[in-house]
Amino acid sequence: MTQIKRPDDNVQSQNVVPITLTSLKAACSQCNLRELCLPYGLSETEIAQIDHLVGGRRKVKRGHHLYRAGDPFEAIYAIKMGFFKTDILLEDGRDQVTGFQMAGEILGMDGIGTDVHTCNSIALEDSEICIIPFVQLEQLSREVQALQRHFHQVMSREIVRDHGVMMLLGTMRAEERLAAFLLNLSQRFTARGYSPQEFHLRMTREEIGSYLGLKLETVSRAFSRFQDDDLISVHQKHIRILDAGGLKRLLNHQAP
Amino acid sequence: MTQIKRPDDNVQSQNVVPITLTSLKAACSQCNLRELCLPYGLSETEIAQIDHLVGGRRKVKRGHHLYRAGDPFEAIYAIKMGFFKTDILLEDGRDQVTGFQMAGEILGMDGIGTDVHTCNSIALEDSEICIIPFVQLEQLSREVQALQRHFHQVMSREIVRDHGVMMLLGTMRAEERLAAFLLNLSQRFTARGYSPQEFHLRMTREEIGSYLGLKLETVSRAFSRFQDDDLISVHQKHIRILDAGGLKRLLNHQAP
DNA sequence: GGTCTATATTGACCCAGATCAAACGGCCTG
DNA sequence: CAGGCCGTTTGATCTGGGTCAATATAGACC
Question: Could you tell me which residues come within 8 angstroms of residue B86 by beta carbon, excluding any fewer than 6 positions away?
């Protein structure tokens, strides 16, 4: 309903860095995200094979779409740097954030089933992604078994992640949802070499609320409660986790 | 929390119909579900190729598990006949039904990512499934492009379906959720040649509630309200949809 | 550096759905 | 066919989070 006003721009051709010798040099084999991203588990020689899989890069500025619901599906995207959200918009204006994605994670798999994207992908900070043309990914998957395997794992994990969100939305109370959300972010930041205790939220309270099935006021109140209980400290988007154990305990004890 | 008491039995070896000439004869190329199931979109010759993909059949009696969270992942399963639910169980006893599956649909993709199943799959009526050993599926996917493509589509559609459930759980009111649920069931029964208006629910109110993030009493009350409004008629598990348009209208009008 | 606008916090009140409780209806089993 | 057991329906009451509203804070933009 509250259509966030942000620059509207996802012209496909714009900001696409063409493949050149220099860009190739910075493809998977040279990328420090390869242990988190699509090449995970591949041998050196296999990674070399998938280097030319990346059909270019694209910068997506904060607030801009990487793709929109309805766009034809042509490629999936690996986040080189930055932060995204995906959301679905109903005709009546209601929307639901379906996920937040960070460096090394894959975007766009929603489009495979129907050849059309079914959600919107929007950068929450200035970002850069690697374009992986899907036809080529399938082609190479037929040749490189480890790539095939890992791509299937990536899709499966997305399904499992979605089940976790369903659990959260279906059975958890507001504070549990937020605790789970913070712990999940912390864990993913840690995997990327950042502090587990301290990070900046890239999204608004409203976006967190949409993801967690709560109103922004409820999110804000839960943050304040956590702060009162010395579980975290919050200042706007800056979060410091003071008692991760306390947050975890919140998760396992359902209220009366 | 309410652990439903049902026979406990998913011994893998039991009830597995071994591959014989006769069982092969009834594999994909002879199966009347092939337009709904994994072979969809494949040519006659391609379907012939995947006939020996099915590593046997297995009957699963009502209330029994096809697999459990924690079981090693080895195969995915195509439902030949019957009806299943999948659910996740939290340590504290809370559980969430993550889906209901019917003939032609694929089960088990949750296990690909970690080589271990992450949810439970339970038959809601006496059922029979085709076992598709995953190693062989990947093998054949590397050879038959159309199979690869379609398998990716099946996984992607599962992701999109999950997004729809997230939308439902995150933004819809109780009656909208139930209306969406009924319309979805109706549409899937129709695709299988059954009546769009009239069907038997295979699941309890509690299971519907778990899936929709509601309590069973709320589900029951919503059914009664729909009946009062002449949208449906309900008698226990027997449903007749009287006004599909009315149900659809419920979906698009969010309450004040 | 001051104004503007988006985001965040906090308070007061309300309501959809949860909870508690009771009764009903199929159906299976002995 | 009587008795017990689920699963379901319905009523009465309670409450977590939604809604409405006012204020605070901070970037962003001249």
Answer: B97, B98, B99, B101, B107, B110, B119, B120, B121, B122
